Every structure is written in structure tokens, then in C-alpha cells.
Amino acid sequence: MSTEFASVLPEPAQTDGRRRRADVNRQRIVDAMMALVREGETWPSAEAVASRAGVGLRTVFRLFSDMDGLYREMHAVMIERLTPIFHEPLGEGDWRFRLGALIGRRARLFEEMLPIKSAADAHRYQSPYLQVEHAQLVTVLRQILVFVVPETVRADTMLVDALDLALSFESWRRLRYDQNLDPAGAEAVMRRLADALVAGY
């Protein structure tokens, strides 16, 4: 290597050290954001995030160009953690059994994502990324529901719409936050709604 350039290039160890520190700080910032959201802060300020993470405000904005970038990172972490639940088998049995298993799976999924998704939704209309992620979640949840129910139910598009609403994240959030039900109570209401809707099938 030319000595002309060697003198101005950073040492590999120094570069690696800075990268590791940046990765550590990035994770601390995301963890701080998620902790604040779980504690009820739907829109934590950059100052609050920096304070909780134990880093400077400039570090937050150096690693995340704006708060939207931080929400994107937090949302990506949530999806990574929840993906295994999406892939859990519903077990063997008829479609009613599998529908019941699906409700149980959604109850666990929705409860885990409740504070983070609610905070992201408050920010969603200012974030094209979060709008796309929300639309994809709605689509996937409906596709799974349609796959579980039989053709006689799928043929009744109004019934599918009603089930899609009754078993949605938005219904879970209302039951938990607005109607003040605990997770077991919210799940019981979802089951009651589903049973009533498919009673004639």
C-alpha cells in the first residue's frame, strides 16, 4: 500500500471498535425506545430515549436520521420476535378446532405486540413505511383466516369481513384498552364473537 494513503487510513481495529460501539449504542437506543413504549409512552421524545439509553442526543440522531427511523427499527425488531408465533401449527382437527387455535394464537400475538403496535399506529400516518407494514399485517391476518375456514364460510364474503374484524388487532386493542378487559377476558370475547358468527355453519 502506498505510504501516501497509509498515513490517512484508519487502523482496522479502530474502525471495528467504532462499529461495535455504534452497534451497541443502536441496540441500547432501540431497547430504550421499546421500554418507554411498553411503559405507556406512545410518542417518546428523542431526549427521553437518549436519557433512558444512556447516550447523548447527538448519538440518537447520528444513528437514526429521525424518529421515524427509530420507529422503523423498533417495528422490525417486533416483527422478528413475533414471526415464530405466526408459524406455529394450529394442530389437527376440523376447521372449528383450527379456528379456535387461531384465536388462541392471535391472543398471544396481539398481547405481545399491543403497546408497540399501538405506538406505531399513532405515528403511522406520518410514516409511509409504517403504513405499508400495517397494510401487510392486515392482509396476512386475513389470508390466514380465509385459509382456516371452509369454502362454505369463504363464499359468504360478508361473514369473512365480520370475522376479519372480530379477530383483528384493532378489536383486541379496544377490548384491552377501551373496555379494560384482561387478556383472558379479551380472548373469551373474541371466541364468543367467532362462535356467534359461524353458528349457522
Structural notes for this entry:
The protein is mainly alpha-helical and 201 residues long. The chain has two domains: 1-64; 67-201. It contains eleven helices and no strands. The chain has helices spanning 3-6, 12-38, 46-53, 57-63, 67-86, 95-124, 128-148, 151-154, 157-166, 169-178, 183-197. Helix 2 packs across helix 5, helix 9 (157-166) packs antiparallel against helix 11 and helix 10 (169-178) packs across helix 11. Mean pLDDT is 86; it is low at 1-9. It comes from Caulobacter ginsengisoli. InterPro entries: Homeodomain-like_sf, HTH-type_TetR-like_transc_reg. Residues 1-22 are annotated as: Disordered.
Number of domains: 2
From the spread of the alpha carbons, the general shape counts as elongated
Order of helices and strands, N to C?
A: HHHHHHHHHHH
* Helix/sheet category: mainly alpha
Q: How many strand segments?
A: 0
Most strands sheet = none
Strand content: under 5%
The pLDDT mean sits at 86
Helical fraction equals: over 70%
Distance between the termini: 76 Å
